[in-house]
Design a protein that fits this description.
Layout lengths: L4 H11 L24 E4 L14 E4 L1 H21 L4 H7 L1
Antiparallel strand pairs: 1-2
GO molecular function, one term: nucleic acid binding
Pfam family, one: HNH
Protein name: HNH nuclease domain-containing protein
């Protein structure tokens, strides 16, 4: 990323009205503000799968949505591999 993560957060915060891109809860850019939900930077299409750092591929999310998304990804990957006919034991290792 040529810009700092904080400057990207500020732009996305303004573009998305300070809302989580998944659940719509109000976010904060200030990590120290008590009771606030800190805005996390999330790639829609992961960089590991060819995703870019363009604003169109980035979301601000709350910690809950970010955790939920990443905790379900291995299960989704395994399910896709099983549906494609991949052996379940090898699918788990690939996920």
């Amino acid at each position: 990323m040529s810009q700092s993560r904080q400057s990207i957060r500020k732009v996305l915060f303004a573009l998305r009205d300070g809302k989580c891109g998944r659940c719509g809860c109000s976010l904060s850019l200030d990590f120290k503000f008590y009771g606030s939900i800190f805005a996390l930077l999330h790639h829609i299409n992961p960089k590991s799968k060819g995703g870019t750092d363009n604003y169109s591929n980035l979301l601000l999310t709350c910690q809950y949505c970010e955790t939920l998304y990443h905790s379900t990804q291995p299960l989704i990957s395994v399910r896709e591999k099983i549906e494609d006919g991949t052996n379940i034991s090898s699918a788990w290792r690939l996920a």
